[in-house]
Amino acid sequence: MSINTTVSVDVSNTTVNSSVFGIQTPVHSTTSDILNCVTAGIAVVGVVFGCFVANIVRKLDDTELRSRFLLLSILICDVILTLSNLPLMVFVFTLINRKRFEKLTCPFVYVNLVVSSHFSMSLVLSLLCLALDQVIAVFKPLYFRTSEGTRRKVVYGVIICMPVPLASAMLIYWTQGITETSDDIVDCESLTKAASEVLPYQAVIAVPLAVSTPVIYAVVLWKISRQRCVHSDNPLGSIQNRRLVVSFLFLSASYVLLWLPTLAYFSGCYYSGNGCWEEESNDVSLLLYAIFTLNYIVDPVTCAVRMEPIKQRIILMFRSR
Question: Check: CATH 2.60.120.760 for 11-319?
Fold first, then answer.
């Protein structure tokens, strides 16, 4: 079975995108169909709940929730990435005449890869900026309260948005390379191949940045523990501060535990070329992708359960009805 970007005519061996880098695999087993349906369901729930929690965070004030801007950025990136995956999931995993609509698979894959290459790094940088913001809040509390918050938001916004033009430049570069080497008109499969070249390079950068965030939170929690020992006049404030930092730690830990194994697996497949997407390993790829998608639910659930201002707004919203 070929693993390139061509689409098979046989309906029983229709090739679809099952990996984060756009490599396509045959889907024909019951296990694959179950994993596909689970992944699509997780994506739908993630979009709905992510939009719901992001709307609540948007209405909060900076005095109610520390680092609200960065938290909102994480939730928005989650929703955008889920929405880019959802059309492909719904198309592939629903019972439709795939032979009739097989030409739509490549555009869905291309859109998924382009959006992922633009916003995956933005999500990682949002998590990193959130961790650094907690360092400033705990180690320099007076500066954090008295300094101009707008300036920090501008700096964080520039850092978070920086991967978007860089990914666009890389995408244009690889697309031009394919155009120069091709005598014919560039088809959708060639564009998809160019888009899939961006993600492995981003994964190499994203892995160390994401792994460093739990280490930063460990240092912040150590500092909070020392402050509780030295300054015991405000135990409630220390407890609330620690709970908020632990909540932010959960966001980074969920990314490390749910995303990085999948990114490492597909990056290893890409660089080694050892046939990770062969037919016999199809279920493994789909299982890792389902675990990968779980993060879209974990982030809003963590915000709604662990962060008191968001939790109180949700309780008040349902009580008023």
Answer: no
